Structures are given as C-alpha cells and as structure tokens.
Amino acid sequence: MKLASLKHGRDGKLVVVSKDLTRYCAADNIAPTLQAALDDWDRVAPYLDALYRDVEHWSVPCGRFHEHDAMSPLPRAYQWADGSAYINHVELVRQARGATVPESFYHDPLMYQGGSDGFLAPRDPIPLKDVSWGCDMEGEIACITDDVPMGVSSEEAADHIKLLMLVNDVSLRGLIPGELEKGFGFFQSKPASAFSPVAVTPDELGDAWAGSVIHLPLMVDYNDAPFGRANAGQEATFSLADLVAHAAKTRSLCAGSIIGSGTVSNKGADGGPGKPVSEGGAGYSCIAEIRMIETIADGKPSTRFMQPGDKVSVEMRDAAGHSIFGKIEQDVVAA
Amino acid sequence: MKLASLKHGRDGKLVVVSKDLTRYCAADNIAPTLQAALDDWDRVAPYLDALYRDVEHWSVPCGRFHEHDAMSPLPRAYQWADGSAYINHVELVRQARGATVPESFYHDPLMYQGGSDGFLAPRDPIPLKDVSWGCDMEGEIACITDDVPMGVSSEEAADHIKLLMLVNDVSLRGLIPGELEKGFGFFQSKPASAFSPVAVTPDELGDAWAGSVIHLPLMVDYNDAPFGRANAGQEATFSLADLVAHAAKTRSLCAGSIIGSGTVSNKGADGGPGKPVSEGGAGYSCIAEIRMIETIADGKPSTRFMQPGDKVSVEMRDAAGHSIFGKIEQDVVAA
C-alpha cells in the first residue's frame, strides 16, 4: 500500500494513496497520523491495507491526490539515522583527499544521528542563509521501522522494515570539515531533509525489493537535466536491514524510526569513478561526488554547490516508468 | 510550575505536580501529553499555570505523586541535542591523552545529535549487554524549547527556554573511540538517556536561574555515596541559551526540542583537576572524569565503569534542601 500525510497541523493527516498516485482516501478514522499508525502497526496496517484495496477498486470515494499537498510522510519523527551503505561514495571522498578507506568501513557501517524534529515537505524550498555553506543534495532511499528490540540481527531487522521512502538529505558541505574536526559528528551541516510525497510498503516494489535493498535507479535531476541515475541495488555494501541492526546494537528503536541508506552511488562500468549521465554514465546523487571526481581528474572541483534559484528533484520509477514514491522537487531559496 | 508525565502509553499522561513534589493533578484535559502542551505552549501554559496555583492552594483534588510513576517528562522527543558547556570536562579528556583543547572550543560549542526516540524513565534500570562497553553516567542539566526560528541569537534563544530538567546521559565509553575515529559522531555509544521525574519552568529556580544557567550543585551519588557536587553555575563556558542558538544556526527547532549542557564539571579550588567529594572537592558527574584525573596523576585509571548492580542517582536541591526536579535513580542491569 501507499500512504501519505496531507498538510494539516504539525503531523499531517493520514491518507491512503492509489498505486498510480492520482487519488487518495482519508484514513484518519483508522489512525489520525502516520506516527499513530506506526505506534500500533500490527493492528492498524490490515485496516489501511483494506482501504488501499478499496481505493484501487474505486469502491470508496476518493479525492484527487496532488503531491504538492503532501508533507514528508512523517512530517517530524522521533528518529532519523542515516547510514552510508554505498561505500563508493566514501571511497571517492577519501580518494579526493588522498586518504584510504579503513577496512572496517566494509563491515561496520558509518551512521550519524540526524535531526528529526522537522522535515521539509517534498515540494518545499530549501532555505539557505549563506551560499558559502555549500548547499548540496543527497539522493537516498530510507525505511521506516516498527518497534525494533535491542540487539536484533540483520535477518530479524528485515522484518521490522514497514515502509520505504526516498530522501533528499540536504547537506551544507562548507560546514562539514569544521564539524568533523570537532569529532561530535554532523549538526549544523545537516539542516532539514525532505522525504518523498508517498511512503510505500516493500511489497509495492515486487522483485525490485530484494535483500532489503531497492534494485532500481534513483533518478536525481538538477536544474531540469538528468544528474544521477545510480542504481540503489548496485554496490550496496550494506542493506537497509544491516543499517537497522547497526542502529539497534545498543538500544531499542521506537516505531517510526527512519533509517537512511546514505547517498546512492555507483562505480563506473570500468570499476573507476562513474561518468556523468550526459556521457552515458550513471551520474551522481549529490554534487560533492562530481566535485570529487573533478578533483581526482583535474586537481580541483569545477561544479559549484547549489545557490538560490537552483532546483533538484529525486524520484524512482518502476519498470513500466511509473513513479513509485512521487517526486521530491525543491528549489533553493535565500533565507 | 512543575510538570510530569505519568506512565501511560508511549507518551505518558500530563500532570501538574506540587512544588514539594508530593501531590499531582491530572492536566490531560488541558493537553493530553507534554508534547501536545509544548506544540501549543502560548495558549496552554496559562491554563497549566492556573492549575499549578490551584494545586499549591489545595483547591483541586490531588493524588499522591510518586516519582517512580513518572516517565521522562518527554518519554520520547523529536529532538535531543547535547552540548558541552563545561569545557573543564573536555580539558580533562584531552589532558589525559596528552592533547590540547583547540581555541575554537571556547567560542564554538561542541554538540551532538542524540537519539530521542525513547528515553528511560527516571527510575528505570539501565540495560547493559556487555560490560566491556564501559557504561558511564553523565549528570547534566537540560532545557526544553518551544519553536525556535533559524538563526536566533543567544539573547533571543533565552526566551525560547520553557522548561528545565536534569539528565543522566548514559554513555558507553568503550564504544566511543571507535565511533569518534569513524568521524560521524556518537551513535551506538549513546544509548537511551533518562530525565528527571519533573520538568520545571525557569521561574521555579528563583535567583538560581541566571544567565540561562542553573547556579546550584548537581548532586550525583554513586552506589549510595556522594560522587559529584559540581555547581552547574560555575565554569559554564556556554549557557543553555548559547547552546539553543548554536543548534538553531542552520535550521529551526521544533517545539519540544531538548538541549543539554553536557557533563557538569568544576575545576578544583586551585584551578587544577577537581578533588573527590570525600576529599572535600566538588567531585565528578561521570566516571570518565575521575578516570582521567587518575590517568593524569598515575598514568592509568583505577576506577572501573559501571556494571550490573551499580546504582547512580542525579538530583538538585534548592537552598532549603528541597528536591527541585525529583531524583533520577537507576540501577545497571544485565540485558
């Protein structure tokens, strides 16, 4: 099934959305918000699923679904933890500064605790106060869990993945080096992120959901041109289940925890740095990556970070070309 | 006024507590949960305050308040960000490993994004799976904000501090070096924290609330003996308002954001490392600190971290000796 939170108060109004994303039916009689549904998922999900079938069969009255009426599926969440499943991204970061990737990175995931107190809606502008902060997009996939006990294995964690979404994890690259140097991780360098208009259950992906990874290209467009087409099923060193298990090693996770994959990133066909989409490559899911490749090739980056007026979109389509999650589409605006 | 969340579902039931912490009156007719109250604070707070006055005047029926019936005031929160206001703590960490403190630490606060999806109740045991993880307490003060706009100054931030609490920020010291080395900050090394049974408005502190800092000793007991009596008003390089402003530099903060001070820590009377309480000093608010002082003195630490069976409490009393926030009191248990 497909769920969305229409704009309403702080936490939105839960609706079920048709598979083709054209219609919705209010589900707030079942659970007022998506968080409320997740808090009681085993009991509530069958009712939502029944409503979804009614929506698909046109047997309930529906409204027209407009993606710009949606908030992020969880407009605010109790947890947003972002991993780094695609080590190619990390390899490029390190290569660009002449460092190697520690061996441990291939079996112990990187993960940071992100701010979850307020997410941008999928069509909200990205407010930027200072261009020197180096505003970047990061196209990712993410899951929402139910309650996860402390110490679960990856296999057990897979069963706790209830919904999937896309993310634009907005990053302020200019603030990252200073924060990393302080050693306490990202904080000011990670302002509010935006999630796809719709969250879907894994079964919606059919065969494209395998091994707790989505085997489809993540379509990142930048200023209306294709920028990234990296396949989220390729070179995923860690699955979403691995990342959930990592997050739950020393503590339980509350229902509604969002765990992200990190920037989706593919190697080039020759195993080297990937080529731009315009040159037949899979491109990039963030600007930092093309800048690293420029640095490796030319000694310095030539693509600048985002500025007011720039536009980024993130989407994923099924084999038939239909949008699965709806589209994140954001302009950068001066704050 | 004083507020608590009695055990009830995931988010507790909001009650107003008498100044002397002996009685409570349900406030869920005003707002069902503390988060709901904070979401609409300007409208709701006067009603809560009127009820508090009725409780103080014995003009409403009250129940007996038992601290062990309380959850953390926000049993889960949309944000928990912990700063490092007491640089003495950082100086000792660095001194113990022969490093100096970067000059920037004195004007740019350290802050990490903590997990906020589930807090321990103030009398809950601390579940520990592996003694080698090096379980430690960290006694701290913390505030809860209303909605804070992006880019506020420290002066403006002070007005957004609505409630104050104590924290035991549980830390797994054995996992910290590995996580710091990875550069993404704390994650597995910071399991669920516990907050004081009661959250209070700043006016409850009278003159002890000045400059957005609480000028009272934080009483940390360890296995029923005084362990820390560091004054939270001394050597606070940053105030809670400074930390709120730091958190809001690149993004707004949602109502119900919790911002912590970091481990409260005082220098010794001679300006050097502080002495244990048993030797007339102010002692320590975490075990790591005494271990650092032992390392500086003897080349290695002699006090071990917490193990199942150990007990820690955190409390703060007013000038008359009355508990302000109630007591955090936790046993470590094998998980």
UniProtKB/TrEMBL annotation, chains A, B:
InterPro entries: FAA_hydro_N, Fumarylacetoacetase-like_C, Fumarylacetoacetase_C_sf. Residues 80-332 form the Fumarylacetoacetase-like C-terminal domain. Keywords: Hydrolase. SUPFAM superfamilies: FAH. It holds the Pfam family FAA_hydro_N_2. It comes from the Bacteria. The keyword Disulfide bond does not apply. The keyword Hydrolase applies. This is Fumarylacetoacetate (FAA) hydrolase family protein. It comes from Tsuneonella dongtanensis.
